[in-house]
């Protein structure tokens, strides 16, 4: 790895040395930016090879978040469909996953400080990991609120709540692969972020429609019941807000490593 990196540096210096010649100047002016970006990208991401445990911890961490998101979605479905036993299993599972994700997150932070990984971007990357961890934290909090407050969801809007859970979960399903890709091929991150923003927008639109139905088309409900239902639509929606925040952080990081 060191030999390869030095080879790139030497090549770059040679190119700079000969830029006074017109033909070399034309070549360099056209290729300098892409060449430097390639060197920075390889140097930055190959550094993980010095600590294989970081890669393993990253993979395990993202796996826990994926499972947490799955339990979040299934938990809401089970609550609305009256599957109480399965709903409680989802809560127990997401609590365990949250604890395990927090533990792995601390390991990753220790590895970054111990090996001085990505010193120019360490704080940004660790903030990104913290935001990803917020997904399972928020999902657990929402399920616990369902358990404690036991909201009554009328038959007329149950399918809307189920679809809201599906859409907000979809935004997470697309942001996790994008976060994984960042540590391998950062130039390809942008492809997945568009889907995250799409599902976030769809989640926001459906949540607004649910609130409109509650307050404008549900005369049989008391005002307190309407406010309660709006509250739960808002909190389900907030999981997709976390996914959108992660997408924005990834986009910013990709720009920074190109500068």
Based on the structure given, which CATH architecture of the largest domain is correct? Up-down Bundle
Largest sheet: none
**SSE order:** HHHHHHHH
Q: Give the class-level CATH name of the largest domain.
A: Mainly Alpha
Beta-strand percentage range: under 5%
- The number of helical segments is 8
Separation of termini?
A: 23 Å
- At the fourth CATH level, what is the homologous superfamily of the largest domain? Phosphate transport system protein phou homolog 2, domain 2
Shape type:
elongated
Report the C-alpha radius of gyration, rounded. 23 Å
User: Kindly state the mean pLDDT as a whole number?
Assistant: 83
Structural class: mainly alpha
CATH topology term of the largest domain = Methane Monooxygenase Hydroxylase, Chain G, domain 1
Considering DSSP H and I runs of 4 or more, what fraction of the residues is helical? Answer: over 70%
> What's the assembly state of these chains?
single chain
Contiguous runs where pLDDT drops below 50 for at least 5 residues: 5-47
- Give the beta-strand count: 0
**How many structural domains?**
2
Could you explain the architecture of this structure?
The protein has 259 residues and is mainly alpha-helical. It folds into 2 domains: 2-43, no CATH class; 52-258, Methane Monooxygenase Hydroxylase, Chain G, domain 1. It is 86% helix and 0% strand.
